[in-house]
């Protein structure tokens, strides 16, 4: 059995959370939308607290920041793409281009970075830090989030 089949078999047996309702909003036009990035690249500023092996928190990244550190703690994580081009994991310059072209309304002033290494249930992110990050972005007027899973 290949690795993909093994992962599908494993994931197929995980419990799925049940929610009381299904929230739904009808999105407006993308040309009017403010877009933010949420990445799992564990990005942070050099002076920020580093991500730990079980870190379920997030870091807030300001729109103008480009000098970021990739905080994945595993030595096996391939950093080559990030080193070559920040936009591989955090496509902030591509968003700026889309805004300049009028494809999107605006680039959000703040973006969110989580660490991708989470426990199987992702319960803390799902119930605590995720809703907290979503509130921050909503309060900033963000309409659309671009998720870059790393």
Describe the model.
- The chain has 150 residues and is of the alpha/beta class.
- It has one domain (30-148).
- Helix content is 28%, strand content 18%.
- It contains four helices and seven strands, in the order αββββααββαβ.
- It has helices at 3-12, 80-84, 92-101, 123-139; strands at residues 34-39, 43-44, 58-62, 69-70, 106-107, 110-114, 144-148.
- Strands 1, 3, 5, 6 and 7 form a five-stranded mixed β-sheet that branches. A two-stranded antiparallel ribbon has the order 2-4.
- It starts with a helix and ends with a strand.
- The mean pLDDT is 88.
Major sheet attributes: 5 strands, mixed
Unreliable parts: none
Q: How would you spell out the order of helices and strands?
A: HEEEEHHEEHE
Q: What is the overall number of helices?
A: 4
Radius of gyration: 17 Å
Query: Residue share in helices?
Result: 25-40%
Q: SS-based structural class?
A: alpha/beta
> Terminal Cα separation, in Å?
25 Å
Shape: globular
The average pLDDT value, as a whole number, equals 88
Strand content: 15-25%
Tell me the count of domains: 1
**Structure summary, number of beta strands:** 7
Topology:
Blueprint: H1 3-12, E1 34-39, E2 43-44, E3 58-62, E4 69-70, H2 80-84, H3 92-101, E5 106-107, E6 110-114, H4 123-139, E7 144-148
Parallel strand pairs: 1-5, 1-6, 1-7
Antiparallel strand pairs: 2-4, 3-6
